Amino acid sequence: SNLISNSGTLRSADLDSVVVRNDKESSLQIINQGGTFTGSLDLNSPNAHNFSNVDSGLIELGTTFNLGTHTGTVLDNQAMIIAGKLGGIHTSTITTGDFSSSNLLVVDADKATSGTVTNDLIVVDVNGRNNAIDLGGQIETKWSQTTTMASGDSGTLKFFASANGETIDWSKAQATNNGVVAYTLRSSSANDEMFLDYTVDYKGGTS
Fold it and tell me: Which of 58, 59, 103, 179 has the fewest beta carbons under 10 Å from its own?
């Protein structure tokens, strides 16, 4: 197999553009070792691929993060992953054989002056396979600098889902509270969607 090891910056022109595309002839291993990987991916092929995000690595997922549907393909986040760029709201779809996140998933969120709340969403497509999505580690919400909350404000952020109703194992996941906003992590009844229920717990605070 071929190997890409990144400890610097790999990015595309925008989140819809592809950073890495393979020739569909061989397997590819990408190790983001303390680097930043920003943009889309297109490894759609019959071969097994592996994307490992380790050390202090950051994956800013593009709109389409396609590793292919081979059952041996793995996206393993041991560092930090987010839909789109930090500080912006984006929806990203990951296609892989197996997904695992054991360190940090960041959710950007924004509350407009109108009261409308928007947030990042990651959708994982594992081609209908159950027991292939493992969401662990910390789930940390970052509200935009323009968001102002009042005491008692509450709501729900849908931040993670499977594409075809595949089950999500979130038994090792925790929501990060910041002392201003309290979060409760929960799933849909079918365990195929993940939500953060939030409540502002001090008066006049800005999250």
Answer: 179
